[in-house]
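# step 3/5: fold
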Amino acid sequence: MAIYRIKGMHCASCATIIEKELGKAAGVNAVSVNFGTEKAKIEFDPAVTDAHKLSERIEPLGYSLGNLSHADHHGEENLRVLKSRTLTSLPLAGAAIVIMTLEFLFEISVPMAIPAVLAAYMLFVVGRPYLMGIHRFARYGKANMDTLIGIGTSAAFFYSLTVMILGSSLGTYFDVTIIVIAFITLGNYLEARSKQKTGDAIEKLLNLQAKTALVRRDGRETEVPITEVTHGDLIIIKPGAKIPVDGEIIEGASYIDESMITGEPMPVSKKVGDTVAAGTLNTSGSFVFKATKVGSETMLSSIIRMVEEAQGSKAPIQALADKISSVFVPVVLGLAVLAFTTWFMAGFPSLGLISFVAVLVIACPCALGLATPTAIIVGVGKGAGVGILVKDAATLEKLYKVDTVIVDKTGTLTIGKPTVSFATSDETLSLAASVDTNSEHPIAIAIVNEAKHRGLEIKKVSEYKRIPGVGGEALLDGERIFVGHKGGDYVEVEKGGAEIGKIKVSDAIRPASKLAVEELKRMGIKVVMITGDSKDVAEKVSKELGIEEYFARVMPFDKYEKVKELQERGLKVAMVGDGINDAPALAQADVGIAMATGTDVAIESAGITLLHGDISKLVKAIHLSRITMRGIKQNLFWAFFYNIVGIPLAAGAFYPLFGWLLNPAFAGLAMAFSSVSVVGNSLRLKTKKI
């Protein structure tokens, strides 16, 4: 599956035309064109066709395939062209309005040749893209928004020109041609500028990439472009420098600001053996690391790729808008002809012309086409900014519908490693640590770490003996010290056969877990805990967190069955796991959510990945899905409402009853700002707190 930038696309109908045309090409298996991102995903057989041949196929229709690496330049160039046309057309529209004002309010006659010349320049110079739309319609039978605007403004111009040449007393509509093209050009410019803002999350991610790296080669320090860094290169990082590629620290230590990738504000301590990720920022220390992933392999590149693909994907809710857009232009042409014919037959040819032009001008599939993709682009980008990576638009829509979340206890609700929560005394802890320093058991390691943390003395022992399933013992100053379980939840410490104290070791609950569970419940979401731990431990943790339902003693391969069990109850289930051991359960769930600690988990392993976070990011992800879907529904409502009301009004359907008739100039203004309002509503999502 290859992704290409589409050049020349102006409306949602364009996307349908391109999809159909490329879909007919030999060797093409699947095509998906997104009007919001102006990109096409094409799956084809390289033995049969290539990008050049596919581009040639759509070039007669006014489109072409472009390389993604030049996408930003294309966007800027398109914006410059639209800005130039807007700056040319607005003064002409102002002149037309002045002429109208002089004639209607002050009854000052202006030579008809002046508006005629202005209209001719506007139609044949500024409005050339719309005339090309008529040409392509006549030659290839493919109509889009340009075709509708071109036919409408041309009809008004040539009708007026005929009236002027014949010297008829009938009214002219040169002002309609001028003002409609000016307003629509202005609307296109504002829309393009707004669309560019919706995708600034990608630009921010791209800006995180370092341009050069300080590499140690043959004992010398050399600054090289990032593209020349290879696997195994030793890279020197100084205070305040960006990390250029992914790697492992081999010298020195520092604190790394990973907030730009994970969303976590506190710098992370890094030492020899720890990994670092491209795009993150070194704070104070200096270190050397060995490059392990370069170019497109780095985590930052993977995130950029994932965000781009998600922003270009289509949500199921978009299907209806796509179906309407595919038949929109032919239907509108038919309605415009019907309106003209009806008024003409009724003896009102001038009303017929006004209605014909107004219907063609006001009808707008663009608002429908932009309703979903612009909101998805903003939503996915906003998520990426706080370490929530969404795989595709469909996942975001599914998360919006989720009513049950299955959460793995260890590492998600809890820290994921044993810690000391109680010790009778420092002496008890010191003696236990002196014995356990010889053991590699997780509980022993937790006791040793806690003793070190408290600054306690860890003495040297002799004759250490491990007691399988219990603990261990050793000699210290001639006395036997025993550390281990003798039933119950506590580790007992004995000196010379007499108990001197107890230590409680447990997997501590994450500080944010309780608040997150409470918030999920407030959102109407059922929380189910799943764990391989004993029923007693599961019950204790669930009670502490306020979770009503849990599954204990569940092996990784049984989690899949538990997900199915809940789905069979009619629940929409999201599964939160580590993305590796829980792969079958994540795949079975309606939405699979992987908890990643930064660079150690493949971010493509689930529908949604929460980077370096705790369960509180799950709450944010659900909030994100809800505000995004709410934005999409608002956009679709206004897009449908606008067309459902606007087209009959333009056709003169309300004229016999209320005397309402829409001037084509105002129809052009309404059409121009319908798209801008939809994009503006999507941009509003940026200000929402998640």
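# step 4/5: annotate
The chain is about 50% helix and 20% strand.
# step 5/5: archive (pending)
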